[in-house]
Amino acid sequence: MSPSARPVPAGYTERELMVIAAGREIRDGETVFVGMRLPLLAFAFAKRTHAPRAVGLFENGIVRDRPADQTLMTMSDTPNLPGAVWSTGTREIMGVLQQGLVDLGFIGGAEIDRHGNLNTSYVGDWRRPRVRLPGSGGGGDIAALSKRFVVIMPQEKHRFRERVDFITSPGFGSGTGWRQRVGLPGGGPAAVITTLAVFRFDPETSEMVLASYHPGQSVDRVREATGWALRLAPDVRETPTPTAEEIAIVRACDPLGFWTR
Asked: Is 59 a catalytic residue?
């Protein structure tokens, strides 16, 4: 089934649900490396709900302790400047990340594997790739240095692979202990939020497991869109349905539906 043909539950869109699920990953008082696209809204949603003391870092050098007053199409839009607590440069923001001061980072990906490794560089042999992708941006740094990170991406079988061709942003490498062996200080991926489900990682094996499937989806449907024999978390269940209040907050953050429709 193509993404466009995928059934969408009445009352909200797939992306609105993803924004809310991502926002729920932000804890009050945390320092968050916000990223682009849906994380822009997830941060604004969290600030307006359960995490009013969260602080957002933007790669272009902006730090905010309250969300922008208008919808951000990119982090460099003018509405992201008024009210910022610090307007500096990318070097300073990456320095904060390097010091281990970022609690949570958001990353997108073209492909991901069972241990949460992300590929945004090459499809096929990197020396003669079939497809060239945009590359790391700040993704590799966030994956290596933040205390934990969350991935947001569409779910299709060709994107969810047993093993990616190229690791741009490291997850748990080949499994438990790999990050420590190669000297990565950050904690690795904590969750993967897709158009179909939310995944977490088995603490024993560091393998991705299905934690919840979105309303209107099913375990079988998620397994069909996964490129390996997907295991289930012991307490796998349906993703909590967004409340009317939560949907209203997301739509207030993105009234034209630029990111969410």
From this structure: yes
